[in-house]
Amino acid sequence: MNLYAKLRARADEGRPVRVGLIGSGKFGSMFLAQVRTVPGMHLMAIADLDPARARRALEETGWDAGAVVASSFESARRSNRIHVTEDSEALIAADGLDVVIDATGNPAAGIRHALLAARHGRHMVMVNVEADVLAGPYLAAKFRKAGLVYSMAYGDQPALVCEMVDWARTCGFEVVAAGKGTKYLPHYAASTPETVWQHYGISAEDAARGGMNPQMFNSFIDGTKSAIEMAAIANATGLDAPADGLLFPPCGVQDLAQVLKPAGDGGVLEKSGMVEVVSSQERDGRHVVGDLRWGVFVTFRPHDSDARGDYARRCFGEYQVVTDPSGRYASLFRPSHLIGLELPVSVASAALRSEPTGHCAEFSADVVAVSKKALRKGEKLDGEGGHTVWGRIMPASRSLAQKALPIGLAHGVTLKADIAEGGVVTWDDVEVADSQAVTIRRAMENACTQDTFDR
């Protein structure tokens, strides 16, 4: 690791990496808390639809907003202060900017910001996993052609999992499974913004006092966010999506190598090389001992089944690597992740190494809209974390064959047909208005179907 040394050099030269942040919610605020102490990195601008919220975020994360906020992009660049605006397009176009961070969580906004960044020659750190799963292959191709970096956000679980996968493969191991932990039970798939807080064990009143968005938090509990994150990992690493959706097996860290291996060898996977999420709850609701609710993992094994593989297996035992009973399957895990507090790593890697901390490389997995209840013609879908649909991961080939509606476009669209509970919503089932996001997703699907997409 030499990113810090490179940043110090840029600080000494008076040439800091200049960053523009779009969105000052929780993830963006966590970045704000750290970037002011990173040498050689200048937060030049923040764009938020509510500029007052951006100023509050600065104050809450240790900045003196009255002293650091500049009146224009140019004055911010010259004085190493911060310009706050509601105009994200102006931010992306501002002279001197090196890296754009999209932390909006809105897939349509993320697509728009990425295309603008590529046009203006800015590297992109896409915190917005929703946008990446909806149109990541298309966006990544745009940045490749422009000679720019399109990156996952370090500190978020997908990028950390990609790092573990890369580590295992670079060491010469076969990656058997990779993913994260979460709190999940099968009936959570039907959760709504009205029922979500009982699953978290807090009251609606306390959640409201904490400014917690029930629909956003519901997307975590109903499995949608897990599906989106696993699809992003699959598209970045080439690991496969489960054919019938995530299993969410209950599993503690001591059992990762035993559970996350192929069913033929006593595990739960349909085959080797899958993404998966483990639950911190047993199916009867009991807490899993040694749960990985906030962490990430990889299970792996030696490629060789002969004496060469046996040698690596002996080394696993000698160095106390957690393995299954055979000693052949092993696991490593990270028990937690720090979200936006770790985001400076992505910014520095993009600007100083021209390397992403994980990036979309192919369209192998998708997340599609599945009905939470019987839906009727004329009803309007309310998208990720809402009352009507949840997101299920599936192989992209199956999604395309079924003409499944991506979860990222399942908000504000009206049904043209009845959908049974648990049914996959298709493009033919909804009235979808033209938009940039729809046009790009359609173009990506058509190109993939014709096998002409630039990968």
Main sheet attributes: strand count, strand direction, barrel closure: 7 strands, parallel
Query: What's the helix count?
Result: 18
Proportion in β-strands: 15-25%
Strand count: 17
Major sheet strand order: 3-4-2-1-5-6-7
CATH C-level of the largest domain: Alpha Beta
Structure classification: alpha/beta
- Low-confidence residue ranges: none
Mean pLDDT: 94
Q: How would you describe the shape?
A: globular
Domains, number: 3
Known CATH architecture of the largest domain: 3-Layer(aba) Sandwich
Polypeptide structure, described:
With 455 residues, this protein is an alpha/beta fold. The chain has three domains: 165 residues, 3-Layer(aba) Sandwich (Rossmann fold); 141 residues, no CATH class; 85 residues, Antifreeze-like/N-acetylneuraminic acid synthase C-terminal domain (Type Iii Antifreeze Protein Isoform Hplc 12, Alpha-Beta Complex). Helix content is 38%, strand content 18%. The protein is built from 18 helices and 17 strands. A seven-stranded parallel sheet has the order 3-4-2-1-5-6-7, with helices on both faces. A hairpin with a 6-residue loop joins strand 11 and strand 12. Helix 7 runs parallel beside helix 8, helix 8 packs across helix 18 and helix 9 runs parallel beside helix 13. The longest helix is centred in the N-terminal third of the chain and has 18 residues. The protein is globular and about 65 Å long. The model has no long low-confidence stretch (mean pLDDT 94).
